[in-house]
Amino acid sequence: MLKRGFNTIAGSAEDFSMGSRMFHIMSVFIGLTLLIKALFYQFTSLQLASAVCGIAFLLELGFYYMSRYRGQVLLAPVLSSAKLALMLIPIYLYNGGLSGNMLLLSALSLFLIILITPQKQGLIWLSLVTGIALLMMVLEYLDPSIVQQHYGSRQEHFIDLGITYVTITLILYGGITVLRKSYEQQKVITALQTKKLRNLNDEKDKLFSILSRELGGPLLAVKQYLSVMKTIDLTVEERSMLEKDLNRSLDDAQYLLHNVVLWAKTQMDVSHVQLEPVNLQDLIHKTVGLFQARATKKGITVQVDIPEDINVLADLTMLKVVMRNLISNAIKFTNLEGAIAVQAEVVDGEAVIRVKDNGIGLTKEKQAVIFSLNIAPNYGTANEKGTGLGLVLSKDYMDRQGGQIWFESIPWEGTAFYVSLPVVVVPDYLNPQ
Q1: Which of 42, 100, 216, 351 has the fewest beta carbons under 10 Å from its own?
Q2: What is residue 426's DSSP assignment?
Q3: 174 assigned to some structural domain
Q4: How far apart are CA 305 and CA 82, in angstroms?
Q5: Domain boundary at 119, 152, 185, which?
């Protein structure tokens, strides 16, 4: 309740800077102080001081409204500061002069002004407020008659000074508390940003390491192939075997580069999410078809069991990439003559897709870092290379779509990856036939 009230007065962090929110809070403190003063002076002999505080209260209310609800976040603090500085003159003249509370209020005004105005203006406001206070003291010293109103009694004097002291203490406490809170929040934000930057830098280094390692092999193979072609006469069978190996290396390099480009786009926030209804059966059948030749070559059976009426809200391009990576990995790490099952069901309004294989599974160490670039390079059951970048990209894409991805794995028994996305109802005539 207290936090909600604080946010209502200050404004949300999404809409206002920390400086503007601080001004809103201090403006409310200043307004309440002026209102209390105006009401107190109304019942004393300081009637004109009551009028000054009342007018100042209304002005402060207007400045708060300008900043909080009209977006005048630069003008309002300046006007409020000018009002605080200039009102010291009538308060001095109509509130007992040097024997009143003007010196206390000038110190408080300076504190508040420095708190709510840009740092570059600090010296200007310091000179102005201090100059006004010193000038009024000198003028009273030279001509005491300039003070127009005095306290009616010693009791009024002491009550006014007491109220002023308590008010100033509370405002100082509130202002310092806000400053400390702002400092702690900024400290946490800075620490998080530093950690994020460090992680991004580490991931960049790991990515470059992967690229230099994985692209070096195919390029070296091309170079060696060309060298062999120049120096050695190969039979048709030998040339065919070398070309197949070379083609596989280049396919792996192309697949890696494709994932690298997609991952780089996500890191630069240029991958825009476009959610739309996607039919799972149509997408997964097409995706499995892309890898059917690889699966057949290893004697792997891929069974697909996807109800035709399941549609999810997803980014089509991103979901294609996720499913390609999961099915490609399943084929890569499944033994010869193995089996892969791709299934989907609806659970509590979410479509859960499962890609399960009976391959080599994941060790506990690999499971702990499976969705990060910390995972070590590995090889499939037919010596296919794996970098782990595809799963990093898949995790990022699922997060961006508002979905989830997780897995279950038992070493040497197999792995099951799960993807969940919200189900969306699509009229029958829009579903693929």
Answers
A1: 216
A2: -
A3: no
A4: 73
A5: 152
Tokens 């003159």 belong to residue: 89
Measure CA 98 to chain center.
52
Residue 85, in any domain of the structure: yes
The DSSP output letter for 423 is B
Q: Contact at 8 Å (CB) between 273 and 401?
A: yes
What local confidence, expressed as pLDDT, does residue 82 receive?
A: 85
pLDDT at 71: 86
Query: What is the pLDDT at residue 267?
Result: 60
Q: Please name the residues in contact with 265: beta carbons below 8 A apart, sequence gap of 6 or more.
A: 271
What the block records as the tokens of 320 is: 């294609």
What's phi and psi for 300, nearest 5 deg? -95, 135
**Structure confidence at residue 357 as a pLDDT band (50, 70, 90):** very high
Under 8 Å CB-to-CB from 199, ≥6 apart: which residues? none
What total of structural domains would you count in the chain? 2
The DSSP H or E segment spanning 134 is helix 122-142
Q: Does 50 score more than 80 pLDDT? A: yes
354 φ/ψ angles, rounded to the nearest 5 degrees? -120, 130
> Does the CA dihedral 235-236-242-245 come out positive or negative?
negative
- Model confidence at 249, in pLDDT bands (50, 70, 90)? low
Of the residues 118, 137, 152, which one is the last residue of a structural domain? Answer: 152
Distances (CA, A) of 417 to 19, 309, 322, 361, 404: 47, 22, 11, 11, 11
Helix (H, G, I), strand (E, B) or coil at 117: coil
Number of residues written out for the chain: 433
Span 92-113, mean pLDDT? 77
Beta partners for residue 305, in sequence order: 343
**Looking at the predicted structure, is the pLDDT value of residue 160 above 90?**
no
Interacting residues of 102 by C-beta distance below 8 A, sequence separation 6+:
88, 91, 92, 95, 133, 136
pLDDT at residue 211 in the model: 59
Give CA–CA dist 46/44, Å, rounded.
5
User: What is the bridge-based pairing of β-strands 414-422 and 350-357?
Assistant: antiparallel
Of 102, 28, 87, 81, the C-alpha closest to 56 is 87
**pLDDT above 90 as % of the chain:** 22
What tokens were used for 400?
A: 């961006």
Confirm whether 349 is domain-assigned: yes
Over residues 192-221, the mean pLDDT reads 66
Q: What is the pLDDT of residue 112?
A: 76
Q: Which domain holds residue 79?
A: 2-152
* Residue 390 belongs to domain with CATH number: 3.30.565.10
